[in-house]
Amino acid sequence: MKLDRLRRSDVRRCADIERILFPGDDPWSAAAFHSELDQGHLYVAARSDDGTELLGYAGLAVVGRRGDYETSVHTIGVVPEAQGQGIGKALLRALLERADELSAPVFLEVRTDNDTAVGLYERHGFEKLGIRKRYYQPSGADAFTMVRPARTPARDEVAG
């Protein structure tokens, strides 16, 4: 598996994967992915070793200005047949590296019943802030709002 930037040519496949992963909710469309790329958000792709197959994707939005950035994980998706192989973790780490470069906190929403994703986020320093009732539509599933505090070089030295 290798990571690189998500390409516009990947967008249709991303939308297909969304429909597979999130059938009970409103999966992202190709237009939604194009909009994210148009806005300049960081989108990373996980590809097969030979680069021919898109295995997953992840997106991070950055808002604010220098010295006062915030970031938000917009989506992470891995094709079902490639789950459990560390791809989601690799994608998340790529997003967190960018947030760390900006010394920015990272926010996200995740379904309260997605124990695998919640565990992944907690292992990477995220904490639950609260619950958004009926966040996912049309299923009405609740979401945890989670945050990982900003990481700075000074803080990393103390922790290290």
Low-confidence stretches: 154-160
Count of extended strands: 7
Oligomer: single chain
Rg estimate, integer Å: 16 Å
Can you summarize the main beta sheet? Answer: 7 strands, mixed
Helix count from the secondary structure assignment:
5
Helix content: 25-40%
Distance between the amino and carboxyl termini? 29 Å
Q: Order of helices and strands, N to C?
A: EHHEEEHEHEEH
Structural class: alpha+beta
Structure notes:
Strand 4 (70-78), helix 3 (87-101) and strand 5 (106-111) form a beta-alpha-beta unit. A 7-stranded mixed β-sheet has the order 1-2-3-4-5-7-6, with helices on both faces. By secondary structure, it is α+β, with helices and mostly antiparallel strands. Helix 1 (11-21) crosses helix 2 (30-38). The protein is built from 5 helices and 7 strands. Helices cover 32% and strands 29% of the residues. The chain has helices spanning 11-21, 30-38, 87-101, 115-123, 153-159, and strands at residues 2-5, 42-47, 54-63, 70-78, 106-111, 127-132, 143-148. It is globular and about 35 Å long.
Outline of this structure?
By secondary structure, the protein is an alpha+beta fold. Helix content is 32%, strand content 29%.
Task: Lay out the secondary structure.
Blueprint: E1 2-5, H1 11-21, H2 30-38, E2 42-47, E3 54-63, E4 70-78, H3 87-101, E5 106-111, H4 115-123, E6 127-132, E7 143-148, H5 153-159
Parallel strand pairs: 4-5
Antiparallel strand pairs: 1-2, 2-3, 3-4, 5-7, 6-7
Helix pairs in contact: 1-2
Keywords, separated by commas or semicolons:
disordered C terminus; 160 residues; alpha+beta
